[in-house]
Every structure is written in structure tokens, then in C-alpha cells.
Amino acid sequence: MITLTRAEGSLAEGQAPLKVAWVKEGRLLSQGEALDARLGGLLRRALEGASLKEGESLLVAAPEGQVLLFGLGEDARSSGGRLAQALLRLRFPEALVEPLPEAYALAEGLLLGAYRFDRHRSEKEEKALTLRLPEAEEVLERARKVAEGVYLARDLVNEPPNLLTPEALAERALELRALGVEVEVLDEEAIASLGMGAFLAVAQGSENPPRFIRLRYAPPGARARLDLVGKGLTFDSGGYSLKPTEGMTTMKGDMAGAAAVLGAMKSAALLGLPVEIRGYIAACENMISGRAYRVGDVLKTLSGKTVEVMNTDAEGRLTLADALFYAEREGAERILELSTLTGAAVVALGEEVAALFATEPAWGSLVQEAAHRAGEKVWPMPLEKAYREKLKSPVADLKNVGDRNGGAITAALFLSEFVRVPLAHLDIAGPAFAKKGHALGPEGGTGFGVRTILEVAQAL
Ligand code: BES
Ligand code: ZN
Ligand code: ZN
Q: Given the CA of residue 233, which atom of ligand 1 is nearest to it?
């Protein structure tokens, strides 16, 4: 548990049992210098001969309390995350932190870096950390509200798939009603009567029934509208095109797109963003049973287009085809869709960078720039029309996979068949789930996408 509070007074004037001063290239910053002057050069002497790299620290005992000298890197957000982790590790309960020019990024980094998921541990690490920052309350408040959304998205991704079933995910969505978000959940029967044949086919192999979740955050006088779609596979075994165990280990996180949508909705409502945001999630499991869909099945999507299933592990695009078409039918002007869609995106861009595809350049640029401001890494990829023929089927309008080559592109082309309004598709298969701890959090769900969505909404 971490709390950020506003501190009165600078590092030199403030009172605290522990003060944190940043060190960059061997030098103190201005408030650190002022503190050092008060301490008669104690800090500078301590730094002599040492070279503190990013994330490294040196604890100095001063007459009025201790001072932690902490190595600052290029990025204030990451350095904040590392600092929070170091303070938790050292079990310091409280500290006064020197401000940085990047005040907001620092506050956000401190909160994100301190995230832990110990809901299912018998022994909780009950470490509480209070950080005081001499910053404007608005800055801290925004960081807290954004972090709430990121925390929600991470919690949902980290929750095991036996507990976070499609119904349970819908229950978590319904909790957003408390913040004034309208939430409606459609059950299997309602999904069937709508005609979402592709979504239902993916869901039909599971004992846990699917849910279609609609969300609407509509503040009075909203200046624009944004429609979000998130992939909501609470577990992806691959179906009859079964994944090997290794590939299945992170598949509880195949609802990270949905988690980002819910997290962003939560933050947007807390922040009171003046934009109407709608969200759509087709939540289900991809399982094997006597009822499961097969390779070779032909499905009728909500749009009326038919799809021949050539690989049951390419299930996300089937659920998204129906969700995207539904979003447009509900009046979306432009759609931002997030999904852990392809291993090919991870091969292309690695674990840290999401692949961005856009059917319209201006919408793509807006999303790319928003991600950049949010500090989330995305890179544009081509929706190459020449590859559209890879999706031709001998028996249906489309098949659900191309060949091995350009797999992230053919997946994006498949999605684009189901929308006419501008679509930005973020393939977050890499960055949604961290295989090891990092500056902004531990191993597991990252909450990737929440901050980008909020920046997009703010830019409208
Ligand atoms: N959920 C996976 C994609 C994925 C892979 C997410 C790795 C996170 C990490 C998706 O449903 C899938 O299995 N895609 C297949 C598509 C293929 C059959 C065309 C893939 O990428 O192998
Ligand atoms: Zn799959
Ligand atoms: Zn999947």
C-alpha cells in the first residue's frame, strides 16, 4: 500500500525521518544542493568516489534524519517506480521526496512501481509506504486516479482464470456503476438472439457461459465520443488447435484488452473527463469439449459475413469481429480496440512494444502521439492490402487465419473487415504481461493501454 501526500516545504526546510535526494551524473539537483548546504557538505562528501547509476542508492545518516541519495535516470516515471520499490524493500514507512520538473510522471511512477498482487498469498506483505511530495495537490490527485485504473487492469489480468470467469469479469465491470458508469451485461441467450455467431462459437466449448459487457460513461456536456473494444478471453487454451503448456501459461491474461478498457473507464470516471466513452467486451473462454467449435466450422458473424475456422487458436479476432460490428452499429464514430491478439506481434516488436494498426492515418497518429505522452511504447505497422488475399476461403467469405508470414497484419486486416468507421487496433500481446519485474511493477499484468486510452480521450 502506497500513499502520496502533499508536503509543505522543500527538501531543505521540510522535516522528515527520511529524505530522498536525486543524483544525476554524480550531482545533486537544486533542492538536494540546498539540503547539502544545510548539512555542511555531508551529501557531497558521501557522493565522492561513488557513481550512482539509475536505481542505485546510498543511505547517509544526517543529524536531523537520514538522507537517501537515489540515482535518477532518463525517465522520471521509471526512476519513480524504482524509488518506490527500493523504499518498500528497505521497509521505510515514510519519506519526503525531492520534486522533479516532470512532477506528474514522477508521481505516477511512484504509484505504479509500488503495485503488488498478493490477494492469493497466505502471508501478505503488509508494507505501508507514505511518500510526501512538495507538489500541487492536482498533480498528485491525477496520478492517484490514473493509477487506480492501471491497478484495476493489473488485478484483472493477474486474477487466475478459475476465479476470473466471464461472469466474474462482468461482475467486476458492474462495480463501475458505483462511479456513475452505465453497465449492461448480456447473457448467452441475449448474445444468441443478437446473432453474434462468431463470438458464441468461440464460447461454446466452455462450461462457463459467455457475457457481453457494454459500458457507457457519459458526463453532461461531453465534448466528444470515444468507443473502445477490448479482447476478453478469460482463458485461451487454443481450443482444438491446442497450445503447448508453455504457450498457455500466460493465457489468463488474454483479457488484458478488456482489462485496459475497464481500467480506463474507472480512471475516466474518477477524473471526470469531459468525453463520452463507450466500451464493449465479448468475454468468454476458449476451451475444448464435445461442444467446442472445430477446425473447418463455418460461422455466421453479426455482420452477416461468414468465416471458415482454420485455427481455433485464432479466436480473439472472431470475438472481436462481433464486438466491433456491434460497436459501430451503436453509433461509434471512431474505435480504439485493444487485444492480446497475436504471437506474431511479439515476434515483430518484442515484449515491450505494442503494434498499432489504423484504417485511417489521422486516427492512427492521434493514438500514437497519445501513447507517447502516456509513456507507453507503441509502433505503427502497415495494414497491407496485398495480404488480404491470404484470408480468402474456398467456402466462406473469409477464413480466420492467413499463413505464418505477417501474422499480426493479417489479424488486423481480418478485424478491419468488420468496421467502416476509423479503427485503431493495438495488438498488446507483448506488453500486456511482464514475464519479470520492471521499473513500473512486478511480473504479471502491466495494465498496458489504460494510460494511452486516457490520453486519447483527453486529446479529443
Ligand atoms: N491470445 C493469443 C495471442 C498471444 C500470444 C497473446 C502470445 C499473448 C502472448 C491468440 O489468441 C493466438 O493464439 N493467436 C495465434 C494466431 C494464429 C493461430 C494465427 C498466434 O498468435 O499464434
Ligand atoms: Zn488463441
Ligand atoms: Zn487469444
A: 1
Query: Which residue lies with its CA nearest to atom 7 of ligand 1?
Result: 343
Residue whose CB lies within 8 A of the most ligand 1 atoms, among 234, 235, 315, 342, for a mutation test? 342
- Domain coordinates of the chain in residue numbers? 2-135, 145-459
Question: What's the confidence (pLDDT) of residue 363?
Answer: 98
Class of domain 2-135: alpha beta
CATH among 3.30.70.360, 1.20.1260.10, 3.40.630.10, 3.40.50.1240 for 145-459 = 3.40.630.10
Pocket of ligand 1 (CB under 6 A): 236, 254, 311, 313-316, 340-344, 346, 401, 407, 429
Out of 245, 341, 433, mutate this one to test ligand 1's pocket (max ligand atoms within 8 Å of CB): namely 341
pTM: 0.98
Ligand 3 mean position to 158 CA, how many Å? 16
Instruction: Encode pLDDT of 159-218 as tens digits.
Output: 999 999 999 999 999 999 999 999 999 999 999 999 999 999 999 999 999 999 999 999
Q: Using CA positions, which residue lies closest to atom 16 of ligand 1?
A: 314
| Cα first-last separation, the chain | 34
